[in-house]
């Protein structure tokens, strides 16, 4: 790229994802035309925003698809995440065109984890959110010891429940350590311990990213209504108000463990409450022949800010 062709500025939009209320949910910065930006500039912009993720939209490599979408945390590029896909679909779906073409009702994003399909959600003809299908099948393991989970969350080891499954790594495109906490009150008291996260990262670091922890609690009376929190201090995300990829992985895992061989389950994950940014993530899991075949995530979005970044 020469200095004559490099962009002097890039437009951005920020949206609040998994909410219908502005200044709630999970913040996302979307650069809907990132042509001409270098990898270094994309990372610098994501770091400047400081949100859990920012997305950069490029023309698709395959013209049958809508766009290539690259996702950056404040520290690194990642292969997939839930709220960046929902929010990016919301932004692009509200545009008249995407790289010279009308967006349509189904958008297909090329990402490092694979092809992500997003269907727009509308109310009165207006785009209000999106449903995405996760790009990879669930992977489970290795298990993670309860003492490590508890130390990372500043909790006592007995706060970690094994009544349904052991703490373990789960992924549908991005890995998380996932553990059930005995009740919502205990979950709400959790606080990330960076020193413990560094120790956990040395022992359990996944290939795709640093050690991140997704905790949840639910009752026997309402097993498909879940409260959750996610900590990723090693990615400069002390706490995330909505984590779609972890929610999808947890939902798939829980449905895989029920005895029914064929079942469709709708799950609601409430997150961000302790941060004052309440989020509602809808997950749909289809299990056929004892195997989880499809996992989708749904959520509403609200536009928050827009402007130009000087380069």
Automatic annotation (TrEMBL):
Under Pfam families, the record lists: PhzC-PhzF
Question: From which domain of life does this come?
Answer: Bacteria
Per its UniProt record, what InterPro entries does this chain match?
Phenazine_PhzF-like (IPR003719)
Family, according to the entry, reads as follows: Belongs to the PhzF family.
What protein am I looking at? PhzF family phenazine biosynthesis protein
């Amino acid at each position: 790229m020469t200095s004559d062709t490099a962009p002097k500025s890039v437009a951005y939009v920020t949206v609040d994802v998994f909410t219908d209320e502005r200044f709630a949910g999970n913040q996302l910065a979307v650069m809907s035309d990132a042509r001409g930006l270098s990898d270094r500039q994309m990372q610098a912009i994501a770091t400047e925003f400081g949100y859990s993720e920012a997305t950069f939209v490029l023309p698709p490599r395959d013209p049958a698809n809508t766009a290539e979408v690259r996702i950056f945390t404040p520290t690194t590029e990642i292969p997939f995440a839930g709220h960046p896909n929902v929010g990016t679909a919301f932004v692009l779906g509200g545009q008249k065109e995407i790289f010279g073409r009308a967006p349509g009702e189904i958008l297909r994003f090329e990402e490092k984890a694979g092809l992500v399909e997003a269907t727009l959600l509308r109310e009165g003809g207006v785009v209000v959110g999106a449903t995405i299908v996760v790009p990879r099948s669930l992977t489970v393991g290795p298990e993670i010891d309860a003492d490590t989970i508890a130390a990372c969350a500043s909790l006592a080891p007995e706060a970690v429940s094994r009544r349904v499954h052991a703490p373990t790594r789960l992924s549908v495109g991005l890995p998380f350590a996932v553990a059930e906490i005995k009740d919502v009150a205990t979950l709400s008291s959790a606080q990330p311990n960076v020193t413990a996260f560094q120790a956990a990262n040395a022992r359990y670091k996944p290939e795709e990213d640093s050690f991140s922890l997704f905790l949840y609690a639910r009752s026997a009376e309402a097993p498909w209504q879940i409260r959750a929190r996610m900590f990723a201090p090693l990615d400069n995300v002390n706490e995330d108000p909505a984590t779609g990829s972890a929610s999808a992985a947890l939902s798939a895992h829980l449905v895989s463990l029920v005895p029914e061989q064929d079942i469709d389950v709708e799950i609601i994950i409430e997150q961000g409450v302790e941060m004052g940014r309440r989020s509602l993530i809808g997950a749909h899991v289809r299990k056929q022949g004892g195997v989880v075949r499809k996992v989708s995530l749904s959520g509403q979005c609200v536009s928050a800010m827009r402007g130009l970044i000087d380069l």
